[in-house]
Automatic annotation (TrEMBL):
Domain Methyltransferase: 40-155
Pfam family, any one: Methyltransf_31
Stated name of the protein: Methyltransferase domain-containing protein
Lineage, broadest ranks: Bacteria, Pseudomonadati, Pseudomonadota, Gammaproteobacteria, Methylococcales
SUPFAM superfamilies: S-adenosyl-L-methionine-dependent methyltransferases (SSF53335)
Highest taxon, organism lineage: Bacteria
Gene3D superfamilies: Vaccinia Virus protein VP39 (3.40.50.150)
PANTHER family: TRANS-ACONITATE 2-METHYLTRANSFERASE, TRANS-ACONITATE 2-METHYLTRANSFERASE-RELATED
Length: 263
């Protein structure tokens, strides 16, 4: 995402805990938490302005998170958000997720990335990123990756991109369209799963409408208190957005993804 107008729109919309972006933010925060529970140090690939990362860090206060992004403007926004939310368990640094040169082998307990990997320009870059994940992640480490899956129909792309055109800035809808068009095929991700074989990660794709995928390791037990927080956050959403969240849960559940974290 380039340009201050796009960054402003993304930051404003994503920061609204009752807005449409709160749906995906809560979904990914909940599932990431169920995977990461017990981790001490987690790397976020392509953290952007840290909106999603902040949601996850709030649910996992005993874990230290390191966010990596190439955009200085995004990182500046991240610093602002981290300070505003008084989150002491996040640091963000400039870096290339296809290289991760500043991190040593096996230096993280977990890795997350939420709707970022489609920004990589080529399948070769995706392969390099997956290799780096396997390099910096410790044995038996936790993984939660989520991204768009390329849709075959232009009609479907336009439907998703402009579904909330009356609620979101046009520049954000346009960026969403470009992201859906730029998404990798699910087969591109499948080809890279061998890098994560030792972690027993599984790829899930939304059924019926294959517009999103998740790659994750086994869920871990979380405390009842965390489940209550997530349940209350879902109930706090406006009814329309709560329905959107439940629809997303259903599409993933149909592919076998366990979402007991919400119940």
């Amino acid at each position: 995402m380039d340009g201050s107008e796009q960054v402003d729109a993304y930051f404003s919309s994503g920061s609204d805990e009752n807005g449409i972006m709160a749906v995906s933010n809560l979904f990914h925060a909940a599932h990431a938490t169920q995977v990461l529970h017990g981790c001490k140090k987690v790397l976020d690939l392509g953290c952007g302005p840290a909106i999603q990362l902040a949601r996850i860090a709030e649910l996992n206060p005993d874990c230290h998170f390191v966010g990596v992004d190439l955009s200085i403007e995004m990182l500046d926004r991240a610093h602002t958000l981290i300070a505003k939310n008084r989150l002491s368990n996040i640091e963000v640094v400039k870096g290339d997720i296809t290289k991760l040169e500043q991190f040593s082998d096996a230096s993280f307990d977990g890795i997350i990335s939420t709707v970022t990997l489609h920004h990589l320009p080529r399948a070769d870059d995706l392969a390099r990123s997956f290799y780096q994940m396997s390099r910096v992640l410790r044995a038996r480490g936790a993984i939660y990756l989520a991204d768009f899956s390329r849709l075959k129909s232009l009609k479907s792309v336009l439907y998703f991109a402009y579904k909330y055109r009356h609620k979101l800035p046009h520049v954000l809808c346009l960026d969403y369209e470009r992201s859906l068009r730029a998404a990798f095929l699910s087969s591109d991700f499948q080809k890279q799963m061998h890098h994560l074989a030792s972690y027993q990660a599984i790829l899930y794709i939304t059924r019926v409408l294959p517009f999103m995928l998740a790659i994750k390791t086994k869920d871990r037990d979380v405390s009842p208190d965390i489940k209550i927080v997530i349940k209350n956050k879902r109930l706090a959403l406006p009814q329309q957005y709560r329905n959107e969240l439940d629809d997303l849960r259903l599409l993933f559940r149909m592919s076998g993804l366990n979402d007991s974290i919400f119940t």
